[in-house]
User: What shape does this take?
Amino acid sequence: MISEKLQDAINGQIAAEMWSSNLYLSMAFYFDKEGFTGFANWMKKQSQEELDHAYQMADYVIKRGGVAKVGEVAVVPQSWTSPLHAFEVVYEHECHVTSLINGLMDLAVEEKDRPTQDFLWTFIREQVEEEATASGIVDRIKKMGDTAIFNLDQQYGARQ
Ligand code: MG
Assistant: This one.
């Protein structure tokens, strides 16, 4: 059976995953409004993935004889200044999520709860991917910006 302390900490993470899901859904709405339907689609998938994390954590708590709870989920931001800004926020947020999961792992180690440590490794591994994906998109957008400036430079350079 899972300790109450660990149960409560995972319940806190369930709310955090739901907040992440809402953040990405909010970004999806923002991108749709701005006409970036591809980014909007990516964000909707990302949002669903975060909600799946919440479900997985709830299932785990229940399986270990604990009580899964849906806690308070704070309101999420609703606008960003550009696609680059939004993806920079995604990257920063994923780094924050990594620190939250690491904190849960520290607690599971402290409590000598091996099944929870095993359960959390999946999320720790996944955060490596999440951070790499987000920073990869940030880099791509930055390079695209450079390409656009390069093209503009070429255009003005051709002036007779
Ligand atoms: Mg997550």
Summary: The helical segments are 4-34, 37-63, 83-110, 114-157. The radius of gyration is 20 Å. The longest helix spans residues 114-157.
